[in-house]
Amino acid sequence: DAGVIQSPRHEVTEMGQEVTLRCKPISGHNSLFWYRQTMMRGLELLIYFNNNVPIDDSGMPEDRFSAKMPNASFSTLKIQPSEPRDSAVYFCASSLSDVRRGRNTEAFFGQGTRLTVV
Amino acid sequence: KNQVEQSPQSLIILEGKNCTLQCNYTVSPFSNLRWYKQDTGRGPVSLTIMTFSENTKSNGRYTATLDADTKQSSLHITASQLSDSASYICVVSPGIYKYIFGTGTRLKVLA
Predict the structure, then answer these.
(1) Which of A101, B51, B84, B102 has the fewest CB within 10 Å, making it most exposed?
(2) Chain B neighbours among A 28-87 (CB < 8 Å)?
(3) Containing H/E element for B6?
């Protein structure tokens, strides 16, 4: 398996534009996470999906952010409209979770998308 | 409030030397603690994971310790190499999908 695949690796956009980040989790994993990483705040969980269903989106900053997982092999994180303060590295991670037993394997991270909003 | 604090923020050592990174947490309940290594421009990669009953775990030259009573963990790197230069992130999980991340220790190994 190639691991978690994110695209694009880098994105530079103008303030006000729509940005879509993409993620392909590891095949067979049933949990998917979107994180944002900045120097000041480190890694922050934005949203967590289990079996394609959003379980916890309390980390999504505001209505400008939305995430979807239409199937087990694809997820998107959309920012519309983008603002300079959204500049960060966005990571997608996946893991295998057994919710009933409260267990999960380690989360495997993609290489991230570095977003710059000017 | 669930928090994970790491020290030092940054560290510079000479190749071949040992070093120890610290992690203190106030996360409750406690499920497990992980140490991740993050190379520049890449995603974090897991080094070790420890549950409540484990107090030491090794992965090559990396040895992690956990004291669940004092809520402290350390990551010891033996005989450092240039490739150890990275950020090391302590992550504590209070539940199945909840991960509380520290802000990391940036390690630089000099030749």
Answers:
(1) A101
(2) 31, 33, 41-45, 48, 50, 55-56
(3) strand B4-7
DSSP assignment of B44-102: -EEEEEEETT--EEEETTEEEEEETTTTEEEEEE-S--GGG-EEEEEEEESSSS--EE-
- Residue B95 and residue A102: Cβ atoms within 8 Å? yes
Q: What are residue A84's phi and psi, to 5 degrees? A: -55, -35
**What are B44-96's pLDDT values in tens digits?**
999 999 988 899 999 999 999 999 999 999 999 999 999 999 999 999 988 77
Write the CB contacts of A42 (distance below 8 Å, at least 6 apart in sequence): B89, B101, B102, B103, B104
Written as one letter, the residue type at B47 is L
Is the Cβ–Cβ distance between A68 and A57 less than 8 Å? no
Helices then strands, counting H and E runs in chain A, come out as 0, 13
- A21-46 pLDDT, tens digit per residue, is 999 999 999 999 999 999 888 899 99
